[in-house]
Amino acid sequence: MSVAAAERIIVSELVEKRRAQMFPKLTRAQVARLERHGEPRATTAGEVLLDIGAEPRGIFVVVDGSVEILLPFASDVRSKACEFALLTLLAPGDFSGEVSTLRGAAGLVRLRVRDPGSVLQMSLEGLRRVVQNDSELSELFMRAFILRRMGILESGLSDVIVLGSSNAGDTLRIREFLTRNGRPYVNLDIDRDADAHALLERFQLAPEEIPVVICRGGEVLKNPDNRGLAECLGINAPRDDDAVHDLVVIGAGPAGLAAAVYAASEGLDTCVVEAFGPGGQAGTSSKIENYLGFPTGISGAALAGRAFSQAQKFGAQINVAWEAVRLQCDAWPYSIETSSGRPVRARTVLIASGAQYRALDVVDLPRFLGSGVYYAATHLEAKLCDGEDVIVVGGGNSAGQAAVFLSGYCGHVHILVRAPGLAESMSSYLIGRIESTPNISLHVRTQITALEGVGHLERVTWTTGDGSRESRDLRHVFLMLGALPNTRWLDGCVALDVPGFVKTGPDLGADELARWTLSRSPYLLETSIPGVFAAGDARAGSVKRIAAAVGEGSAVVQFVHRALHEFADVQRLPAITVAS
């Protein structure tokens, strides 16, 4: 492709308003500080320093000449050719990189030399040393990396296409997975977009085969699972299967991310295994107004995104679409079997796998998941029910946040609760917000008893405490019914209470410590297996608040340090086989 072909320039509100922060100019003194972390190299016109999907090789600081940052996009779905738009032109003092660079995952842009000259190439290890040890440059780099990813997302351009239908639950799952993991994509709905049918013809696809993802390079994925999608897009960085990590965190919700940030920042080799995307249930909250330090509120996705970037800054390795399947705790180091088929080995383990919303005991509920019944209320779901009446089931804060958020998009929001009111389960500020919102109605002592529809939910019947029934033509129901622990993967390895939450510390009885091998008692957040900890919503007795989960995830790291010190002498684990 000629240089002239890249002259389409990306213009967005974010890029124009915050260009100085997205693409800051390094001073000579700052460049000089970076020289000991990189290697100089000459460049030639047209040379590609980094291509799309390639494993990042750190960043490039332009010394002489110029380098284009090009963003790929499919301009015509009937053609296999991919075009490029110019995000910016890097001049002397400018540098490349965005959040995927820091993570070591596949890049989203092409870096190509326009005017020959020279660059300073910094390795990923060198970049991490800078962001961890140089306060001034750390702030400059991290702000730029985060804003650049936001700018790429805002551009609306991508070479990844999701071809699906708003009536297909798996279409919503794929879109949520890409959105939660900050991956740009183009969405085409076969029910609304004319280009969608052209794409079906081009790839010889039948409508019943959707959803389909056209991955970069033209690879067609028919209804891919999350792991297949992550592998195609290179979301995860390459990893060493033989590595034994100081700490493996299961779950990237508030507790898991907090533990990852503190453990990695304190020098521990930290690996996070996450089934879907950062944030857990909190990541689906439209707006959190009672979290300390954010008086105007913050979305769960934004909060999770910041914590995710912090963990990467300190070098934590994070693998998404890797679901923990089983914990092997009979030998040390411990091993976690994952859905990827690749085990992860650990000296210590943190169970932060969180909880999941309860389901309604209603016939045909599974048939409508993603097609009218949802467990999250984000902008994706809100767009699906724009202007329509909806139901929110639940009386906790998550339900209240969802109802207030959806009231700005939907015609009317009906809140259904079995209890006589909201006072015992919801914060007063949310109750006040609900009472003052004219298009929200509260139905107490009420529960859904029937769901009907062909392909998509079409009709809902609810029953009140006095036995009266009412049916309405409603197409969208949001379930926020409280938490069930996500602990089935533990398979009897650690002690659980009756509902399935992980028991820790003083809550463990003598009969539950039969496999305990140390002379001391378990630490406060330690399970019935030495060096295996639990924090957040999965832990028995935990306070189901984001701040509490963050506190537990932070606090557990001190116990991890103590356990690692004890385990330095493997003889302290006499009843556990020491694996080779």
Number of strands: 28
Output the number of helix runs.
15
CATH-scheme architecture of the largest domain: 3-Layer(bba) Sandwich
What proportion of the residues is helical, as a percent range?
25-40%
What's the main sheet like?
A: 7 strands, mixed
Multimerization state:
single chain
Strand content: 25-35%
**Mean pLDDT across all residues, rounded?**
92
> Could you tell me the radius of gyration in angstroms?
25 Å
CATH superfamily of the largest domain: FAD/NAD(P)-binding domain
Structural account:
The chain is an alpha/beta fold and 580 residues long. The protein folds into 4 domains: 3-153, Jelly Rolls (Sandwich), CATH 2.60.120; 161-231, Glutaredoxin, CATH 3.40.30; 244-356 and 484-578, FAD/NAD(P)-binding domain (3-Layer(bba) Sandwich), CATH 3.50.50; 365-481, FAD/NAD(P)-binding domain (3-Layer(bba) Sandwich). Strands 10, 11, 12, 13, 15, 16 and 27 form a 7-stranded mixed β-sheet that branches. Strands 1, 2, 3, 4 and 5 form a 5-stranded antiparallel β-sheet that branches. Strands 18-25-19-20-21 form a 5-stranded parallel β-sheet, covered by helices on one side. α5 (124-133) packs across α6 (135-155), α10 (254-265) packs parallel to α11 and α10 crosses α15 (546-567). Residues 1-6 have low confidence and may be disordered.
